[in-house]
Design goal:
mainly alpha
C-alpha cells in the first residue's frame, strides 16, 4: 500500500513566512524601543519612554522572544531548504509545532496589550507629543500583530508537517 500523499509545505515557502515574521518583529522592536515623548505638567518637564509602561514592556519582551525563536527556526528552515533533510526527525517536528503555537499566542497577547494600553491612554486628554507617542506605540503593536499573523500561518504550516498517525 502506498503511503499517503504529503501535505507538507515547501521549505522555501516556510522560509519566506518565517522571514516576514522576523522582519516585522525587528521593525516592532525598533519602533517600541525608540519611542519617547517629552511632556510638560505644571511647569515641569517629564520624559516618557515606552518602558515606563508594563504593557509596552510586555510587547517589547514578546518581540524579543519572538525574534529569538524565529531566528532559530529560520536557521533550521534554511538547513532543511538547502539539504532537503529535516533536523531532528519527527521529534523535532513536534517541538516546532508546539513552539509555533506558543509563540503565536505570545505575539498575539503582546500586540493586544499594546493596543489596549494605547486605547486607554488616548481617552485621557493628551498633548501633541503624547498623542504622537501613542500613535507610534499603536504602530509598533500593529507591526507586532502582523508578526503574529505570519507566526500563526507558520504554525498552521508546521501542523501539516506532523507525522501522519495512520492505524494499520
Amino acid at each position: 500500500m502506498a503511503p499517503p500523499p504529503s501535505t507538507a509545505v515547501s521549505p522555501v515557502i516556510a522560509l519566506i513566512i518565517r522571514s516576514i515574521t522576523l522582519m516585522s518583529l525587528v521593525i516592532c522592536l525598533i519602533i517600541i524601543s525608540t519611542n519617547t515623548a517629552t511632556t510638560y505638567v505644571d511647569f515641569e518637564t517629564f520624559k516618557i519612554k515606552s518602558t515606563d509602561f508594563y504593557a509596552y514592556r510586555y510587547m517589547l519582551a514578546s518581540a524579543v522572544i519572538g525574534m529569538a525563536y524565529t531566528l532559530l527556526q529560520t536557521a533550521f528552515t534554511i538547513c532543511h531548504a538547502t539539504t532537503g533533510i529535516r533536523l531532528g526527525g519527527d521529534g523535532f517536528t513536534l517541538v516546532e509545532f508546539f513552539g509555533d503555537k506558543a509563540l503565536s499566542y505570545v505575539l498575539g497577547t503582546g500586540a493586544a496589550a499594546g493596543f489596549g494600553l494605547s486605547v486607554d491612554l488616548k481617552r485621557v486628554d493628551t498633548s501633541d507629543a503624547e498623542h504622537n507617542f501613542l500613535n507610534k506605540a499603536n504602530l509598533a503593536a500593529g507591526v507586532l500583530f502582523i508578526g503574529f499573523i505570519f507566526s500563526a500561518v507558520s504554525s498552521v504550516f508546521s501542523s501539516f508537517s506532523l507525522p501522519k498517525r495512520v492505524a494499520s
